[in-house]
Specification:
Radius of gyration: 38 Å
Distance between the termini: 52 Å
Number of strands: 4
Shape: elongated
Structural class: alpha+beta
Strand order of the largest sheet: 1-2-3-4
């Protein structure tokens, strides 16, 4: 047993000094400009925190939305799968790491053999028995050239990549919950506006019907009023269905029934102002996004696999050793002098593989090149997401101001048209046009408000915020 412990210590020392044939890793240069387009249009803020450093609980101002996001993080099935993938990758890494050490096991057994008389020296049938109890390891590879260490490094990078995948999944989930919640708020605003408009047009239709009955209004005016009323009724039905569908979509993302108290009332003031970007913020911030980090982990894993493919060209040394006791009788198994041991080193040197090893190395190198391209694509996709969000951000403030002023102008126009119609100056057709214009302007304002709020969420997600 002492000799076995000495051998194990020697193997561990040899293993600690082993090298690998993994190529030196160099992060590929980001294939995007150094600064985002339209970044200069955002107001520079001194010591502004990066979006990835702002926790989602601090970013979203509405307490109901925060509770809903927290509920989704607990119940969403996609996020649960991502977390389970981490556990799976951790276990796989543990399996691969175990190859760095010898697998020591104990065994005990009996061997019984009967020989017929014509095969024994005495000419009589004989029966022999052998009992043994041993501790040892079998086919343990000395990792002189780092093949196992390279595979271990590959498994480690894949495990770390699943952690980044979980963070990326959380970012997407947080953004999706917020976006769906905002869409629900916008459609509820549209439904409320449609119902209010329906009530107003119902009164207008009733008044026009009475005027038509006494001959004070033409049939054309009556049909125009009826057209507006039916249009508003159709909008009420459409937005009612959209609100129900929005609630169903939100329930699926959250992964649990929606508490009624967490539903939005109105769209305005539901999201805190997005953290402003300093002018000319470098695109290097994208390399800290979890999805980009996941692509880099996959690249590192492919790089490590090249080391394993290279090591396959060199000799492989394996050891099999055991120590224990042996005896022809069971009661003599642990008596003095029954000790036994065996030590079987083996070296395997590839001589002719018909190009198998070269092909394996080529596959590993091509896979690394594929991962380089995927890493660069991930950065380019992230860059475009931020650039698109910034492009919207640069004009949304102006759009909101224009839509508010348009609503105010159409409200005043409707008021004047109504007054002129009652005074007999204008026809009823002019009043109906003013009603249509006001309703359309109010719907457009809701849409721009939704776009503004959704853009804040999109920019927060695109910059890597939401995983904390």
């Amino acid at each position: 047993m002492t000799s076995l412990r000495t051998l194990t210590v020697a193997l561990a020392a040899t293993l600690a000094g082993a090298c690998t044939l993994i190529p030196d890793y160099l992060r590929p240069a980001a294939p995007v400009p150094a600064a985002f387009p339209d970044a200069a249009t955002t107001a520079p803020v001194a010591n502004a925190p990066a979006a990835g450093a702002i926790a989602w609980r601090d970013y979203f101002a509405d307490s109901r939305l925060r509770e809903l996001i927290d509920l989704a993080l607990q119940n969403n099935r996609d996020l649960r799968v991502a977390a389970l993938n981490i556990e799976k990758a951790r276990a796989q890494y543990g399996i691969q790491r175990a190859d760095l050490f010898p697998s020591i096991g104990a065994s005990a057994g009996e061997t019984a053999q009967r020989l017929p008389g014509d095969l024994s020296r005495s000419g009589e049938p004989t029966t022999s028995r052998q009992f043994s109890a041993t501790v040892g390891f079998s086919a343990y590879e000395l990792d002189f050239f780092g093949r196992i260490r390279s595979l271990n490094e590959q498994a480690l990078e894949q495990y770390l990549g699943t952690e980044e995948a979980r963070r990326s999944a959380q970012i997407s989930l947080v953004a999706e919950v917020a976006t769906d919640w905002l869409r629900l708020a916008a459609d509820r605003d549209r439904l409320a506006l449609a119902r209010s408009t329906l009530g107003t047009r119902q009164k207008s239709l009733d008044l026009t019907q009475r005027s038509f009955d006494v001959g004070a209004t033409s049939a054309l005016d009556l049909r125009q009023a009826q057209t507006l009323f039916e249009s508003a009724r159709a909008d009420v039905a459409r937005y009612t269905a959209l609100v129900a569908q929005d609630q169903n979509a939100l329930a699926l993302v959250v992964g649990a029934p929606l508490p009624p108290q967490l539903m939005p009332d109105a769209l305005a003031d539901t999201v805190a102002t997005v953290a402003e970007l300093p002018a000319g913020v470098p695109s290097e911030v994208l390399t800290r996004r979890p999805d980009v980090l996941q692509a880099e982990r996959q690249l590192r894993a492919a790089n490590a696999n090249i080391g394993a493919a290279r090591a396959a060209f060199f000799p492989r040394i394996t050891l099999t050793a055991s120590a224990g006791t042996a005896s022809s009788t069971l009661d003599g198994l642990f008596q003095s002098g029954s000790g036994s041991w065996s030590f079987i080193p083996q070296i395997t040197l590839p001589i002719f593989e018909a190009g198998r090893l070269n092909a394996s190395l080529d596959v590993a190198k091509v896979q690394r090149d594929i991962n380089v391209a995927q890493y660069e694509k991930a950065i380019q996709s992230a860059f475009r997401e931020v650039a698109d969000a910034l492009a919207d951000r640069a004009t949304l403030t102006e759009q909101l101001d224009a839509r508010r002023k348009l609503v105010a102008a159409t409200e005043e126009s409707f008021r004047l048209s109504e007054a002129r119609y009652k005074a007999g100056i204008d026809s009823y057709l002019g009043l109906l046009d003013a009603q249509r214009n006001l309703y359309s302007a109010q719907l457009d304002l809701i849409s721009v408000r939704q776009s503004d709020a959704a853009n804040r969420v999109t920019l927060y997600r695109a910059l890597g915020g939401g995983w904390q």
